[in-house]
Amino acid sequence: MKTKYIFIGIALACVLGACSRDEESLFDKNASERAQEALDNANEVLVAPEFGWEMIYFANPDSKGYNMIMKFDKDGRVTATAKNETTTHNRIMTDSVSTWLVKLDYGPIISFDTYNDVFHAWADPGTDGDGLLGDYEFLILHADSSYVKLKGKKHSAYCYLYPFKPNSTVEEYYTSVEALQKRLSSNGNIFHVKANTEEYLLHYDASTGLYNLTLPNNAPNSEELESYPVAFQENGIQFMVSPRALGDVRFDIKDGQLVSTSSELVTAPLPDYFIEQMQLAKGSWTIDITKHVNDSLKQAVDSVTEALKEAYPKNKKKAGVQSLRFKKTNDVLALVINYIGNSAKIDIAFTFNIQIQNGGVKLTYVEPTTDAAANVLTYFPTIAGILKQVEGHFTITTSDVLNPTSGLYMIDSSNSEKWFDMTGKTE
Amino acid sequence: MKKILYIFLLCAVALGMASCEGDKFGPSIFIDPVESEDVYTREFDLWLKKHYTDKYNVDFLYRLDDNATDPDYNVVPVSIGKADTVAHLALYLWYDVYDSVVSPTFLKEYGPKMIQLIGSAMINAAQGTEKLGYAEGGNKITLLKINKMETNNIEQLNEYIFKTMHHEFSHILHQQKTYPKEFGLITPEDYDPNRWQDRSNQEAWQLGYVSPYASSQTREDFVETIANYIVKTDADWQKMITTAGPTGAAFINQKLEMCRTWLAEKWQIDLEAMRAEVQKRQANLDWDMIMSLGFLNEQPENPDGVLPPIFFENGETN
């Protein structure tokens, strides 16, 4: 009999203990309530902006970012607008007949569950089964009135949504985005990033739409460490994930610099930028010899042109110096003189030693880069006059720190009459 | 004493169980078209409920759930416009045919319980193949590549949709009543599940298969024979038989006869009557009539041919 009471006692303890209210509650509400709250919140947030959202869409972890405008309606319709070279042939394209749904899976999910010509172009498998490796279902990682962060359920890229500015039309929006993209990226933009004691370079590769992280040793074979997908906005840039110690993913232009809430992207000092542009971005610097050029350099160029016309009388009209540009050629930094003699344009390179010195850059002519260059120098000794005009220690200024390729102004430190201007581009 | 003890025990257990109560559930995430007045697709959803769910006990799934797809493949959802068109066409060229030729309750009883539409194909780039449809567990048919469907191209409609539906439904039927084992003995040596895609139509026909895919394995051969016979025009079928040559044609005819007998004996389906009805409807697609029950009422390009109305608002056939 006693055993029976003991058994009953244990049974009661088990039953009551199983649902003990003494257990410390980690949350105010139970799981289903919290899940429902997350769904309700996501629904409310997504439909709230009157003019929709600017969506920075990274289709997959290796994809550059694309700009879309998404408008979510309460009735489950979504309107997507995009303009890019990959899916819309650079035309503004809008599609409104498709649906969206917030539902629960591993967490709150947004599903674009019927086909939208604009949005699903990235997820379509195409003919190879992969297409652009985009998603149509996304985990909602964050949703409030300031921004929404999504993660592709299958291909795991992050997407960011910001309320679309009410004073901006779609056309104005894409015009602004394209202008900033051109300003920041078209000529190989480079930033310096400090992470603890290490310093890295971020440079933009227009062919991939990625910023590549490298070591800042000015070495031509600097090993690439990582790549970061990026998108351009009206007044800033959006990384898919934060590069190293930057800590933030979005940087806006403020006082001529790109800043975030907690850090800033430091543009390279101009002497460094002059060299890194040639080494990292495979760029070149073209000296203005036609319009804004100092007299001495102009005379030097003219004298070579005269010599070429005399040497090639049959092509007297066209013979002459066409351009001067600094670039990396045959693994050395050189001044490349492009000229026309008999008929075709010819590049002749002259090696320069380029050193960062006293806040400026010291350019020293070393030798002709090739035997052909040596021969040309023998035939046309006035070329030495050009080389002399770009030798010396120069201080460097620019009108746009965020895009120095728009114009570098080189002034000899000891002779302000000796100067030349350059614009940069990637080749 | 014993009784009191048990009552006490019962109360304690009830108390213990009740103490677990506390979950309050919000509205279901699943959309009920009847209750969802402010949902954009409500009209279409109600139409599907009436013409598919209520009539055939089938859920017509056009809003894609990633969990319902094969994770090995990248796919995209179907567009609402294409889903609308397929929903109408499937009634006209499939459901209503069975209603007319077999019985009005046949598909409600044996038909798939779910039809899922997916916008893209499932592409296996390594093999150079694309899947246009598949059947699961005798309950669900998934139709793929619907976004590429051209509504004025009956050959393509057959290839993407109706041949696939007949193919997959035949799978469902033989999963319930197995096909004759002798079928696999007609051309047993040339089945090749790994390299069937390397065969041309002509090669497959000459080996005694109605399509390259039919030559992959016996069960695919069986359902391909049925599906191709139903949707191919007389001219196309005869062209295949002629190209197949005497040996290939004999094999194909032998297989067809086996299919015909199996359908008649096991399912009371007259394959010839079924084919005749499908061919008549295919040859005279009346888009105005087909889409008259439409949700979006998107008219296809260049609809041609006129056929007297087959079904009306109440779903009855003439």
Would you give an account of this structure?
The complex is a heterodimer of chains A (427) and B (318). The mean pLDDT of chain A is 89. Chain A has 427 residues and is of the alpha+beta class. Chain A has 7 helices and 25 strands. Helix content of chain A is 22%, strand content 38%. Chain A has 3 domains: 42-167, Lipocalin; 171-267; 283-426, no CATH class. In chain A, a hairpin with a 4-residue loop joins strand 7 and strand 8 (148-152). In chain A, the strands form 3 sheets. A 9-stranded antiparallel β-sheet of chain A has the order 4-3-2-1-9-8-7-6-5, covered by helices on one side. By secondary structure, chain B is α/β, with parallel strands linked by helices. Chain B has a single domain (36-291), classed as Collagenase (Catalytic Domain) (3-Layer(aba) Sandwich). Chain B has helices at 2-18, 42-56, 80-101, 106-110, 154-176, 201-207, 218-231, 234-267, 271-283, 287-291; strands spanning 59-61, 114-117, 122-124, 129-131, 133-136, 140-143. In chain B, the strands form 2 sheets. In chain B, strands 1-2-6-5 form a 4-stranded mixed β-sheet. A two-stranded antiparallel ribbon of chain B has the order 3-4. In chain B, a hairpin with a 3-residue loop joins strand 5 (133-136) and strand 6. In chain B, helix 3 crosses helix 5 (154-176), helix 5 packs across helix 7 (218-231) and helix 6 packs across helix 8. The longest helix of chain B has 34 residues, at 234-267. The radius of gyration of chain B is 24 Å and the shape is globular. The N and C termini of chain B lie far apart (75 Å). Mean pLDDT of chain B is 83; it is low at 18-26 and 297-318. Chains A and B meet through helix 1, helix 2 and strand 5 of A and helix 1, helix 3 and strand 3 of B.
Ordered list of secondary-structure elements with their pairings:
The complex is a heterodimer of chains A (427) and B (318).
Chain A: H1 2-18, H2 31-47, E1 53-58, E2 65-72, E3 78-82, E4 93-95, E5 101-104, E6 108-111, E7 137-143, E8 148-152, E9 158-163, H3 170-185, E10 190-195, E11 198-205, E12 210-214, E13 224-232, E14 236-239, E15 250-254, E16 257-259, E17 264-267, H4 270-279, E18 283-287, H5 295-311, E19 320-329, E20 332-340, E21 345-357, E22 360-368, H6 371-379, H7 383-389, E23 392-398, E24 408-412, E25 415-426
Antiparallel strand pairs in A: 1-2, 1-9, 2-3, 3-4, 5-6, 6-7, 7-8, 8-9, 10-11, 10-17, 11-12, 12-13, 13-14, 14-15, 15-16, 16-17, 18-19, 18-25, 19-20, 20-21, 21-22, 22-23, 23-24, 24-25
Chain B: H1 2-18, H2 42-56, E1 59-61, H3 80-101, H4 106-110, E2 114-117, E3 122-124, E4 129-131, E5 133-136, E6 140-143, H5 154-176, H6 201-207, H7 218-231, H8 234-267, H9 271-283, H10 287-291
Parallel strand pairs in B: 1-2, 2-6
Antiparallel strand pairs in B: 3-4, 5-6
